[in-house]
Design a protein that fits this description.
There is one protein chain. The chain has 247 residues and is mostly beta strands. The protein contains 3 helices and 19 strands. The chain is elongated, with a radius of gyration of 23 Å. It starts with a strand and ends in a 10-residue tail after the last strand.
Length: 247
């Protein structure tokens, strides 16, 4: 039997396969999960407004659906998810998805990259790599059709071939596009990284990267070591007079 978990900000759906159709069966099925529901309220940061058997409504589509306990499942709408807050270890949530994400290596004002300096063979140094600054992760395709927060505090160590997510935290969108250098490789990142970090590092060596200016592809090429940092060799440039698209 499915149950609606009602918060003022939205409804979640909990499906317990052992629950029968009667009110007594529903109460018996709910009793063992009440401590876990208390943990869920703590994680979301607000008490439940109501808990009731679900009406004949479709399973929520724009939600994060996870396995709950043994054989159950829980659908949490995006607006209820507490970004940056680690779920309690005792919360019986399983089978977290992996989301495709891309790694932002460098953001610069577009004025610092005039067209006359963007020539084939030029090496664009990445100041953040010299300073040991953090990178950022952004979902490659928004999950559920909704934008999810970018992650900061991501530490890339290309010499070691690893990406550390333990200190990841949600970032507010600055709205300033400018010039950005993205790693070409799309990553598969455990969704738990968006909730207070994911302790397991990802294997990630240096490869190709792409330069975008005001959201449009401008150049791409390999990442090369440059002293204590890294640079992007501008190997292929997009034609300015033509639509900027890679094949």
């Amino acid at each position: 039997m499915p149950f609606d978990l009602v918060w003022p900000e939205g409804h979640a759906r909990l499906d317990l396969p052992a629950a029968g159709a009667s009110a007594v069966d529903a109460a018996l099925a709910l009793a063992p999960v009440l401590p876990a529901l208390a943990l869920l309220q703590d994680w979301i940061g607000a008490p439940l407004h109501d808990l009731r058997p679900a009406a004949d409504a479709p399973w929520p589509a724009a939600a994060l659906t996870l396995a709950w306990g043994e054989g159950g499942r829980l659908a949490l709408p995006w607006r209820l998810l507490p970004w940056g807050r680690t779920p309690p270890a005792a919360l019986p949530l399983h089978h977290w998805p992996c989301w495709p994400a891309r790694l932002l290596l460098q953001a610069l004002p577009a004025a610092r990259l005039p067209a006359r300096e963007r020539v084939p063979g030029a090496l664009l140094l990445l100041p953040a790599s010299f300073a040991g600054a953090d990178c950022a992760l952004e979902l490659h395709a928004p999950a559920g059709g909704l934008p999810l927060p970018r992650l900061g505090g991501v530490v890339w160590q290309p010499q070691a071939g690893s990406l550390q997510l333990a200190a990841a935290r949600p970032l507010a969108d600055s709205g300033d596009v400018g010039a950005r250098v993205w790693l070409e490789q799309t990553l598969e990142v455990d969704a738990r990284a968006w909730f207070g970090g994911w302790p397991q590092p990802l294997e990630l060596a240096a490869g190709a990267a792409r330069l975008e200016i005001d959201g449009r592809p401008c150049a791409e090429g390999p990442l090369l070591p440059a002293g204590r940092g890294w640079g992007l060799r501008l190997q292929r440039l997009a034609a300015v007079s033509e639509p900027l698209a890679w094949t």
